[in-house]
Amino acid sequence: MTVRVGWGMDAHRFGGEPPLLLAGVVADSGRGVEATSDGDVVAHAVADALLGAAGLGDLGTHFPSDDARWRDADSMELLSNVAGMAVAAGCRVMGLDVTVIAQTVRVAPHRDAMRSALAVRLGLDPADVSVKATSTDRMGFTGRDEGIAAVAVVTAVRG
After folding, report:
1. Are 44 and 60 in contact (CB under 8 A)?
2. Is the pLDDT of residue 24 over 90?
């Protein structure tokens, strides 16, 4: 067995139709993001990290933003598809760590629901899923509250 690590990142500008989803959970019902899909930065970052751990490329390769099929797609469904691809490639997720980067979006009230939703999609115990948040202390696009980002690390075994 080989231990693999994958890293993923996603960011979106605020705008578009509400609600703001994080791991499929409504984190802000009053605003949304500009995106091809539902713009769930957590689901996108995790999917990219999982694809990296499995050696399967990136999210844009499998679900290109210029393909109309992915317009308004449910990002947690895309994550489920990626999880299936990883399993088919002989990759089993052992743990997940996600950090949401935002100035005003509050993650704490939604943390447990986010952990549970991600655990279900990845076949993990919620104890193996970490969800954190940070701000950039008003620096950059997230600090100016123009958008939101997320980074994720997946640990997996292959073989």
Report:
1. no
2. yes
